[in-house]
Every structure is written in C-alpha cells, then in structure tokens.
Amino acid sequence: MKILTNKNIKFLFETILLCVLMFLFVSIATLYIIKEHAAVSILITALIMAAAILAACCQYFIKQDKLLEAATAQITDYISGNRNARIACNEEGELYRLFHEINSLAAILGAHAENEAKSKAFLKNTISDISHQLKTPLAALGIYNGIIQEEAETLPTIRDFTMRCEQELDRIETLVQSLLKIAKFDAGAIIMNKQQENVSELMETVLMHFSFRAAQENKEILLSGDENTTLLCDRSWLIEALDNLVKNALDHTKAGDSVHLQWNRLPSVLQITVKDNGSGIHPEDQYHIFKRFYRSRFSKDTQGIGLGLPLAKAIIEAHNGTIEADSDLGVGTMFVINILITEQT
C-alpha cells in the first residue's frame, strides 16, 4: 500500500494494531484468570486501549499540522517574492510527493519569470535603439522636405506635393511614437513620476493643445470641475491620455459640436469624463475600440491608426484606474475614467 510508505502513517497503524492486539491478549487472559471481575477488567483495558490510540492519533495529527504549517509558510514566502523558497520533502509518502510537485512547479515558474525578465530587458533595449534609429531619418526627411518647399515657391504642383509629404511624415512620426510608447508599457520600461497635480490645470493644458484646432473647425471644448481638486499622477502621461481622448472626440464631431471635459472627486476615486455630441460609436465596435490597430468598417476617419485609445487605456491603468466607453450612435460618446485616489508616500 502506497499510504504505508510514509513512516509516520506506518508508525500510527503499527501503534493502533499493537494496542488492539494487547487488548485482545489482556481480554482473553482476564477471562481465564479473573472470571468473576472479567467484565470490569475488560472495560478498563478497553479504556486504556482507547486512550493509547487517541494519544497516538493526536501525536500524528500534531506532526501533520506542523508539517502543513511549515509548507504553507514556504508557499507564502514564495508568493511574497522569495523565488528560492521550497518545501522540505526528504521523506516518502503521498504528501511529500505533493510537496515535491509543488517545488517543481515553483522551479518552473521561477524559470519562466527569469526568462520573462530577460525578454523585457531585451525588448526595452531594442525599443531604445529603434527610437534613436528612427528619429534621425525622420528629422532629416522633414528638413529635406522643408528645403524643397522653400525652393518650390513658384511651382504650385511641387509645393502641393511637399505639403502632402509633410502630412505623411507627421503621420509616420505619430505612428512610430505611439508604437514605441505602447511597446515600452508592454516591456515594463515606463516609470511613472507621480506628483500631486491640480486637475484643473491639467485640463487647461489639454484645452490649450486643441484650442486652435477647435476654433478652426468651429467646435467648442468645455471644462467643468472643482478648481482645487488634486490627484497623484504623472502629469505628462495623464495629459497624453486625455489628449488622445479629446483628439478622438474632435475627429468624430462636426462643426458646431462640443467636447466636454468634467472631473469630480468621489470618496475613493477621481472620476473624469470626456463627452461629445458627435457621431457616436457603432454598437458593433464598442467592445473593440481599445484594441490596437482596430479600425471600424463604419468609421469615416481614414487618418487614424488605431493606437490612441489603447495607449490612453494603458496610461490610465498605470495610474490604478479604469476607462470605459458609453456611446449612442448619432447622439455622442462619453469616456469615463476612474482613478483610485492615493496619497504620496
């Protein structure tokens, strides 16, 4: 029997068997020697046997409890970050076999974690190299295009061509920067420099980024919220997330429409909403808008690359927040951000 390979269980069974045999021996002897008081003697012997078996069982379960407590402590230590924590399993038995399998699982998980850390470090370095490699030729192309524009003052066709080139270069630069930022989030290479920031000032900065475009397109950007509200956040990253949401709203509104940024401090979260009265999101697309490179077949936007909303989501989640979208087709869209309020340490 496999169960008897454990010496503690084997000892317990041997002890119980010995107690039963002793009880039978004493009981038979009593029947022959002390016939008058045999029943009392057998009862006393049975009580002694029961006490001995109970003591043996208690001793066994106390040992098992200590063993399980030690195993639990090692598992907790491993979960806390000690990748070298292991459960002692030098004996035989089914329980120690289970401990051995847990140790094997811990070793496999540790190896995977180490490989993942190496992969992230490699990806981080690769991203840094790609970033430097791409910035130089893009900047050079921009300069060359500018020179051609200056030389083509009297050549409308070439000037129009260079203006289109400039637009496409801007699109490429935006795409590259967005890809690099998302890749950095994936690699864990982004370090949030969080400070207590005035939310109203953040919103004013976002408004300033789009005020010229809004005026050109006859659209309105409205702000509302407590001017004294603060939030522990990385200013530049949070502004980038909000910029992407406002840009998305402007892309899907027409002349005369408005975009409304509102913030409200709740007991445990800061809630920010970006609401517009534009074309709205088709029901088929609402579950996919945060996917990378997702392009709706219903969208009229031919310039978008499908990275703005995924990047905004990554930034919000890095701030211990969530983002959700609620939209009605032809009525408008509202993005709701909830960021957990924490104090600076």
Key features of this structure:
five-stranded mixed beta sheet, alpha+beta, 59% helix, 345 residues, 7 helices, two-stranded antiparallel sheet, 13% strand
Helical content stands at 55-70%
Largest sheet composition: 5 strands, mixed
- Uncertain segments are none
Count of DSSP helices?
7
Strand residue percentage: 5-15%
* Order of strands, widest sheet: 2-4-5-7-6
Q: From the alpha-carbon coordinates, what is the Rg to the nearest angstrom? A: 36 Å
N-C termini distance: 59 Å
Give the overall form.
elongated
Order of helices and strands: HHHHEHEEHEEHEE
Structural class of the secondary elements? alpha+beta
Number of strands: 7
Mean pLDDT level = 80
List the helices and strands and how they pair.
Layout: H1 7-33, H2 38-79, H3 94-151, H4 156-187, E1 195-198, H5 199-216, E2 220-224, E3 230-233, H6 235-251, E4 258-265, E5 269-276, H7 308-318, E6 321-328, E7 332-340
Parallel strand pairs: 2-4
Antiparallel strand pairs: 1-3, 4-5, 5-7, 6-7
Helix pairs in contact: 1-2, 3-4, 4-7, 5-6, 6-7
Describe this structure in words.
With 345 residues, the protein is of the alpha+beta class. Helices cover 59% and strands 13% of the residues. It has seven helices and seven strands; from the N terminus they run ααααβαββαββαββ. The chain has helices spanning 7-33, 38-79, 94-151, 156-187, 199-216, 235-251, 308-318, and strands at 195-198, 220-224, 230-233, 258-265, 269-276, 321-328, 332-340. The mean pLDDT is 80.
